[in-house]
Design a protein that fits this description.
About 55% of the residues lie in helices and about 10% in strands. It has about 300 residues and is α+β, with helices and mostly antiparallel strands. The chain has a five-stranded antiparallel β-sheet, with no helix packed on it.
Length: about 300
């Protein structure tokens, strides 16, 4: 067999040891795998690029594996060789995991046996009619197997009902989807997306998000207004009420809102707004402030009588 692919294969691992960027590693990976397959096929026809091993299914699905053999290689070569194998770790407990198991060849007695080595790439068992499986398609196939395994675990725990017709199911599934994003398992997130997709429904907005945003805006506004009233109170105490600086702050920071908040919190006198509005306010502002001051006076009289 041709050894033409070995330099490209070695280039990938040398680059890996230098820890280049992910994009550079991927480019080197594709070049190396393309050279490997071209050498194996014996022609210049573009061949499917093996997928990185971190995308391979681990639910027992049989796949084609590109293996750097340590023993029982399927080809008489120093470089990686193709075989078939599977990994069932997702379906067993931690103490039962065996990793990748794949076919090898006993060269002493000419028979198949279990190979030993490190898988460096994989492809599904069946190619597309055009002779290649795009890595995107292979990754989706692998991920769907992982989704099925997680659904099987959920069914074993008695969970289900996503396809029911109970009222509010769309909102419930949407809320559970958001909750599982925070938990961090992409298989759960994908499954909830699948539930909604198969029901023909979109992800509903968070029912509490608008109310929460409104509360946040109110808190921000309240903090802003309090800070501006403090500055106005400082200027008033320094004898600068009605100065150009005082008026610029009031007008640029929400004049109407600041006046309303001062009335609500009883700070018309502290901020100097009672005097300022009496002198320079609009008719509407003067009426509002007079009414507020009367109300404060009536409340004070009521307290004295009590």
């Amino acid at each position: 067999m041709s050894e033409a692919y070995i330099p490209a294969y070695e280039a990938y691992y040398k680059a890996d040891s230098r820890d280049p960027s992910q994009a550079e590693r991927l480019a080197i990976w594709k070049e190396a795998c393309g050279a490997i397959i071209a050498a194996l096929s014996g022609d210049d026809v573009p061949a499917p690029v093996p997928c990185p091993m971190d995308t391979a299914p681990r639910d027992g699905t049989m796949v084609r594996l590109l293996v750097q053999f340590d023993d029982h290689a399927t080809e008489d070569t120093a470089g990686p060789a193709w075989t078939i194998g599977a990994n069932n770790d997702d379906n067993v407990g931690d103490d039962e995991r065996e990793g990748w198991r794949f076919a090898g060849w006993c060269w002493d007695h000419d028979h198949f046996t279990e190979g030993k080595g490190t898988p460096v790439g994989w492809l599904p068992m069946l190619d597309s009619p055009k002779g290649g499986t795009h890595p995107d398609d292979a990754a989706v196939d692998a991920f769907s197997s992982a989704m099925k395994a997680k659904l099987a675990e959920a069914r074993a725990k008695g969970r289900g009902g996503w396809n029911g017709d109970e009222p509010g199911m769309q909102q419930r599934l949407s809320d559970m989807l958001r909750a599982h994003v925070e938990k961090g398992d992409p298989r759960d997130v994908a499954n909830f997306c699948m539930f909604l997709h198969q029901r023909g429904e979109a992800i509903s907005p968070n029912a509490g998000s608008e109310a929460w945003k409104a509360e946040l805006r109110a808190a921000q506004d309240d903090g802003h207004d309090c800070a501006i009233r403090y500055v106005l109170g400082y200027l008033n105490g320094a004898g600068d009420c009605g100065s150009t600086y005082y008026e610029e702050i009031l007008n640029s920071c929400g004049r109407d809102r600041i006046i309303k908040s001062a009335i609500t919190d009883g700070e018309l006198e502290f901020t100097g707004l009672a005097e300022y509005i009496k002198r320079d306010g609009t008719r509407a502002e003067k009426r509002r402030v007079r009414a507020a001051l009367r109300a404060e006076a009536q409340a004070s009289d009521a307290e004295v009588r009590l």
